[in-house]
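Side project, low priority. Logging it here so it doesn't get lost.
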Amino acid sequence: MKPQNRLTTSNRCLCLAKHFPALMTARVYLLALCIFSLFRLLLFATQLVGNAAFDAGQAGWRNILTAFLMGVRFDLVVTGYIMLLPFVALSAMQLLNRRAGWGMVAVRWWIFTLFALSFTVCAADIPYFNQFFSRFTVVAFTWIDSPLFVAKMIAQEPRLLIFLLPLVAVLVAFWHLLRRQFARPAQASVPRQTPWRKLAQLLSFMLVLLLIIVGVRGRLSQKSPIRVGTAYFCSDPLLNQLGLNPVFTLTKSFSTSSLEAAPLMDSEEAMRNVRQRLNVTPASLQFPLARMVSPAVSSGEKHNVVLVIMEGMSAALMGRYGNTEKLTPFLDSLALHGYAFDKMYTAGIHTYNGIFSTLFSFPALFRYHPMKDIAMPRYNGMAWALRKHGYSTVFFTTHDGQFDNMEGFLRNNDFEEVISQKNYPSKEVKSTLGVPDDYLFRFAVTEIGKLHGKGKPFFAAFMTGSNHAPIIIPEYFSPAAKNLSAQVVEYSDWSLRRLIDLSEKEAWFDNTLFVFVADHGGAHAPVYDMPLNYHHSPFIIYAPKILGEPRAFDLLTAQLDVFPTVMGLLALPYLNNTLGVDVLAQPRPYLYFCADNKYGVLDDEYFMVVKQSGTEALYRYADKDTRNIIGEHEARATAMRSYALSNMQTYRHLLEKKSLLFWDNEN
C-alpha cells in the first residue's frame, strides 16, 4: 500500500497546485529564475576564464552578489511577461470552476514555447557577449539573411557548440517538469466552491496579479520602470552588464529602433558645424561636403596601394601597445619600419563597419548596415578616386562574397573585381570562413601580378578572416602559444609576413604602399562598458622605397581617415565628398565611434560614452579612471557631444538626400 500512498500524496500536490493557480505560477517562476541564473553563472564563468582584466577579489564578492541579485530583478520582468497570460487563464478557469483540457494544454505550450525561446537567447548570449562585450540585441540578427552560413560556422567551432549542451539539457528538463506540473492527477476532485472560497480565490488572484505587475515593472518608483541603466550599479563594466537579462535587452533593442529614425540633431546646424570644422565651402547645396583636394607637390608617379583590413586585430594584441605575449612580432616590426599611427580607432565593432568606413570614410550609425541598404547607395570612396587616376581595383576576401552583401555593394562602388571563395580551389576551403589567410595572400599575389602586367597602377584591398571563429589553424603552422585565441593571432601575424615576403619578390613591390588596419578590435581587458580595445586599431603604412624614414604619429586618427590620408601620401588630386580627413594635414580635435546602441567620443585625455537610452558618462581614460566626472566638465562634454552628433547627423542627412556620390562631368 505504500506506493499507493505516495501516488496519492503526489496527486494531492498536483491537485492543490492546479486548484490554486498562484501556487502553480510560483513553481514555474522559481524554476525559470533558477534557469536564468544558471545561464548568468555560465556567462560569468566564461568571463572569469577569458577576461584577464577581471579580478573577482578586487571587484568584491559583495558587488558580484549584487550583480546576480540584480539579475533576478530583470529575470522577474521577463518571467512576468511570459506568465501573466497563463496566470490569468488559470485563475479564470478556477473562478469559473472549470477544468478545460484544451485550456490546460494551451497554457502549457504557451509557457514552454516562450521560455524555450528565452533560454535559447540566453545560450546564444554567452558567445555573443564574449565576442562583443555587449548583451544580446537585434544586431545579432544582421546575419539572418545567411542562416546556413551561420549554422555552418557554429558547427565548425567546437567552443560555440559547448553552449548548446546546457541549452538542450535545460529544455528537456523544463519540458519534463512542466508535464508533471500540468498532468491530470488520478481521481482528482474539484473542491466544492463556497462564497468564502471564491472570495479567497479572488483576493489571491488580485494579490498575485499585483506582484506580477510589480515584477514586470521592475521598480516601485512611479517615475520610471526598470531600464537597462538600472543594472549599472558600480564601476566594473562586466558586473554592470551581468545583471541584465538578454531577452530584456533584445526586446528593448526592437522597441528602441524608432530612436534611430529620429534626427540626432538639426541637420542644418550639424552640416554647418561639420563644414566649419572641415573648412569646406560647398559648391552646391546638394553636396555640402564636396571639396577638391590637391597636393602641394606631386611627383607625377602613381604608386600602387595594397590595403589589408585585418579581422579582429586589436592594437591590444601588439607588443607595441603593451601586450607581453609576443603574438605579433611582424606587425610590430612593420610599425618600426613604416608610418605608425598610434591613436587610430575604428568606426564600429562589426566587420561591415570596418570595410565600409575604411573604404568610404563615413561613420558607423548604431545598427545601420550600410552594405545591406536596399537603395544600394554609391559613394565617392577610395576605389572611385583611384579609378579616376586609371587604377585597376580589386577586393579579396576569404569567404563567400555574398555574405553581408559585400560583393554586390563593392562592385556597385567601383571595385572591378571581387575575389572570394568561389574563385579558390575547393580543397583549400577549410571552413565557412573560406580559405586561411596565408593562402589568400599567396593566391592574391599571383592575381596582382596579372594586374601589374596590364601596365596600370592597381588598388588591391583585402579582408582577412582567420582571426574569427571558427578558428582553423593550418597544420603547417606551429604556434608558440598554448591558448587557441592567441595561436590564431600568431598565425594571422605570420600570414602578413608571408604577404610581404612574397611581394618583395615582385617587380611592383618597390612602387607599392602597404596599408594595414583592423576592421575592429576586441573586448580585451575592458575598463569601460564600451571597451576602447574594441576600437583601438593598428594603422601602419609600409613602403620603404616611397616613405623614407620611419615615423610614429601621436595624432587622433579615425578609421574613416584612412582613405584621405593614403591619398595625401600618394600626392594625387581627388574629390573628397566624405567625413574623413588627411590627419597629416588636418588633425582632429576628437574621435567618435559607435557600438550598436551607444557612441563614444575621445580626445587625448577624456572618453565620453553616450547611450541611446540617454545616459552619459565622461572618464579620464588615460588613467583608466572609472569615475564619471561629466558633472565637473560640462563644457568639454558639450563640445564632444556636438562634434559626434554633428558628424553622424550629417551622414544621415546625406543618406536621406542621396548626396553621397558627387556626379561630375566624367560620371
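Brief comment: The longest helix spans residues 61-95.
Revisit when time allows.
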